[in-house]
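Example 439.
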Amino acid sequence: MYIAVDDTDSREGMCTTYLLSEIIIRSGMDIIGYPHLVRLNPAIKHKTRGNGALCAKLGHGRGVPLKIGSFNGMDIMSYPEEEDAPQATDLINLAGEVVEEMAVLDEHDTNPGIVFSTSEFDSSFYWKAVREEVSIHEAEAFVTEQGGEYRKFKNGRGIIGAAAAIAWPAKQVTYEFLAYRFPNGLPVAPDLKLGVARLADQIPGSFNNIDNRNNHAAIFPRERTPVVLGIRGTQPESLLDKAPEIVAETGLGVERYLLFRTNQATDDHIIPDPEKLRDGCSYSIEGTVKGQPYSITGGHYFATLQKGHMELAIAAFEPTKEFRTAFSKMASGDDIRVYGTYKDKCLNVEKMEVKALSDVYIKIPPTCKECGDRMHSRGRNDYRCYRCGSKESLASYELKPREILTGKFDVPVLSRRHLSRPFELDMCDVVGAPAEVYA
Ligand code: ATP
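Predicted structure in complex with adenosine-5'-triphosphate:
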C-alpha cells in the first residue's frame, strides 16, 4: 500500500520527512523498497522550503531485508517485495492521527494532504507537478481516476504533492540519508558543522556536502526543523555504511535516521528547448549571447540570450556568488546553454555550459606606415605619430584575450537547488535511465 503525505510543516518547525518516518514507525509495518522524497516544481509559491513530498510503500515484506534506518537503537528494515497489503483503513486512520498530532495546522499556509493507493499512479502527474502548476481539483480528480483515496486537512493542498510522490516513476534516482532529533537539532558550532560536512564529503558518491569557498556546511538545515543533517549521494550502500558512523561519532544527538530515494539532482524540473516560455517553469535553452553582461546594485548580473527571433533576459543573482564571475565574462557572440527558472520575464540561471567563445576585438591606434612606431589617438578617427608626425584615420583591431574558457559552470553548493543536477555529478553517477520524454 502506497501512502504519501505533503504540506505538514512550516518554517518554524516539523518536516514532512520526519512525519512520514513517524507514520512508518507507528504502523509497525515493513517498508517495501525505499521511502521516496520527491521534489516538485521549485517555483511554486506555496512551498515552505524545498517543495518536497513524501511516499512510502508499507506492508508485509518478503525477501532478504536491508537495514535502511534506525529509531532509538531499533532497526528500520526495507524489503524488496510485498507479501500482502495491509488493512487500508487502519493505515489511513493512523496516518490521519499522526498528521493531526504533528502537522503545524495553526500555520496559515500549512494544508496537509494524504494520498493512499494499492497500485502505482501514472507518471504523467509527476511530470506535470515537477514542471508546471497543478490545482487541488486536478489532484483530486487524478487520485480518484487512478483508484486511490485522499484525505485533506484545511484546504488539503498537500494532496497535489502527495499524489505526485506516488506517481514518481523513480527512473533516475539519487539518495539522501536524513538524521533527526525531535523537535529540533541541537545547536552545532560552525566549525563542527564544517568538520562533519568534510567527513560526509568522503563518502563515495556523496555530493553537495560542503561549500569550501563560502565556508558553508550544506548538509545542515538553515531553519528550525527535526532534521539534524542530510547527506546526499548516488550510492545507497556507501551512505548506509558510513553516514550512521559519522552521526554517532560527532555527538549531534541523533535519535533516528532513514535513507530516502529521491529525484534530487536529476534535472527533472527542466523542460529542454521550449517553444514558448511560461512563468514558473524551468528550462534549458541554447543560444547566443547578445551584447555585454552588466550588473545592477545588489550584485545581480544580467545578459541577453538570442535564440532565433527570441531574445531572452538571463540573470545570475547575488546568491549565486562566484558563478557571477563566469557569467560576467561572457561576451557578445558566445554560444551557451543555460538552465534555470523563468520568472518575471527573466531566466534565473542555475547552471550554464559555455559551448563556443566568440572572437572579441579591441580597437587600438595603428602603427605608423612611415616609421613603424605606435601612433597615438588625438580624437575620433585621428591618429598621429609623435616621432615622424604622420597622420592616419583608420584604427587597428587586436584580438582580446578572453577571461573565460569553454566548459560547464555550476552555481556554488551554497546556492544549488535540490533538483538541479550539478555538472560535477557525472551522468552515469545518477542511477537509472535518462528522463523519459515528457508528453
Ligand atoms: P518542506 O520542503 O519543508 O517539506 P515544502 O517546501 O515541501 O516544505 P510544502 O509545505 O509541502 O512546502 O508546500 C508545498 C505545497 O505546494 C504543497 O501543498 C504541495 O502539494 C503543493 N505543490 C507542489 N507541487 C505543486 C505544483 N506543481 N503545483 C501546485 N502545487 C504544488
